[in-house]
Amino acid sequence: MGKNRIENLYTLSNSEKELLKLPESKKKDSWDTHTFQDLKKNLKSHLYVEQENLCVYCKQELSKETRLTHIEHVIARDNNEKFCFALKNLALSCRDCNSAKSAKYVYHNERTEKSLSRYPHRSVRFLIPHPHYDNFDEHVSFFLDFYPIEVNQSSKGIKLIEICNLRRFGLMANKITAEFKNSAGGMEEKIYKLSAKSPEEALAGIDEIIAELL
Ligand SMILES: [Zn+2]
After folding, report:
1. Which residues have their alpha-adjacent CB atom under 5 A from ion ligand 1?
2. 58 CA distance to ligand 1 centroid (A)?
3. Which residues form the HNH nuclease domain (predicted)?
């Protein structure tokens, strides 16, 4: 399943450190502009290796296509702009996890998340497994290698599954297809047929697949 957490922070070059001396609001506004293009590219290369090319939340293979792999802010940019470039706040996620999570709170106190001035260094303050602090497999595992479940009633695991919508059809379908690619039973075809159905029917189909596999 790849590495359990990000162990090594990215090392900023001197010119990158200079760049980050810009005021906080300016940095947040410039996130998507040319100003930080190189820095973000270098950071991404570092994180791809650290995360063994897997999304930090759903553990799906990350796409090499820039628009499909996002630099994810654990504490959302919109909730606290001070951590826009805090290296401990950054990880790579797939586009789907990133958009499901959007600006949902991950700190134990909503109001504090917005007013924090220093980046929290304790795992216990976060509602989800923190990519830099927590071992993923102590919180979430994938039953039958595709169905996300919390480990030992982990509240962080429960919250992550909810916040990132880890039980979404697309994710489970991808994992099932990858897992059962060469096995008998026409799994790929089953998933393909389900993908044409309504979200409810598709998810019910996943339940049937689980029942079949058990
Ligand atoms: Zn993901």
Report:
1. 55, 57-58, 94, 97
2. 4
3. 43-99
